[in-house]
Design brief:
Blueprint lengths: L1 H9 L1 H36 L9 E3 L2 E3 L1 H38 L12 H15 L1
Antiparallel strand pairs: 1-2
Helix pairs in contact: 2-3
Length: 131
Amino acid sequence: MLREFRDFIAKGNVMDMAVGIIVGAAFTAIVTSLVNDLINPLIGLFVGGLDFSAISFGLGDAQFMVGSFINAVINFLIIAFVVFLLVKMVNKVKDAALKKEAAAPAAPAAPAGPSEIELLAEIRDALKARG
């Protein structure tokens, strides 16, 4: 069983997935900080620090925190938009690099050796001369 587990972990796609999850978690922290520390305060300047978290209603013993849900939806939309902009920017940089690479002159090709027909002709001539 340990051998099967080791083989499973050693597969490339499992390691790629693990790296993706770790990088994704770090990226999530960066985007969350960007939204919470920079974008939300900026939006707060325009809407006067509007906070929906106090909006709620009760039904029997249950308390429905509608305002917290509204805040979560707004944060999701802001984060999704920021991720969209970041992906768009990365794709633009990649496209520019690909265009630059495609526009760069190709390295000069190595001088072509004799063709197959030329080699056969040389062999034929060498055999005639020997014989």
